[in-house]
Amino acid sequence: MEKPTHCQVLGITSGQPxxxxxxxxxNLAVALHDMGYAVMILDANSSAxxxxxxxxxxCPYHLGHFLEGDKSLREIILKRRYGINLIAGASTIEAMTxxxxxxxxxxxxxxxxxxxxxDFLIVDMPPGxxxxxxxxxxxxxxxxxxxxxxxxxxxxxxxMIKVLCSDFKLDEIxxxxxxxxxxxxxxxxxxxxxxxxxxxxxxxxxxxxSVSHDELIVEAGERHLSVTEHAxxxxxxxxxxxxxxxxxxxxxxKFVDGGIEHFIQRLLHLHxxxxxxx
Length: 278
Fold this sequence. Notes:
By secondary structure, the chain is of the alpha/beta class. It has a single domain, classed as Rossmann fold (3-Layer(aba) Sandwich), CATH 3.40.50. 46% of the residues lie in helices and 16% in strands. It contains 13 helices and eight strands. Strand 7, helix 8 and strand 8 (206-212) form a beta-alpha-beta unit. Helix 7 (151-166) packs parallel to helix 8 (183-201). The radius of gyration is 18 Å and the shape is globular. The termini are far apart.
């Protein structure tokens, strides 16, 4: 297995709650880990159905303890049974934008020290088109939007894509269609969204794959398991392995906008980014 030369920072979000974004984040992380990659999840979603809940745990420390100097970065990282590293961020991640230079330097150094230890950092973002969510997405190197398989899903996803492309001038926007009956159905929905984006935004989107409507995924989530562990031969497990494989190939393509250090540096200066796009 060929490893990426730098840690890939993947921001995962959706146009609205209830689309399955965190389910995708956690199952993609586990599928990548099963392939032999070193993965960490930054849980930046403060909703009830966040990555901590999905992994059946509560982190004893969160990003705020690190930012205030009470704990080192390694002390707040929780390693789950899958071998996945987990950091609880929630709303405290926004505090990174107001750190003084000394604290900012410490944060950047300790995250930078982990660069060589990780292949993927998955940032589980809140849903919606609020400025803070879109700004955080702009800080990542590759953006993944989870789309629900219906007309409302297209509308919500396009609203987010429009702001990311028009206001932030971003590309590397990837789409995962959730809740499909067939793979062809997912591709058709992506093609509709891509056609709209190319016509009105002059920006092509990238298709990462679809996730089947599979009750075994729901059942796995209720047991705080990944579907690849709970039902390894299921359609859902197959879909996540396929998406993980495509994601791993992305990591071997052109290097995009730096790794963890670049991501953290962008977060530290998020107020500047927000001001530029206001």
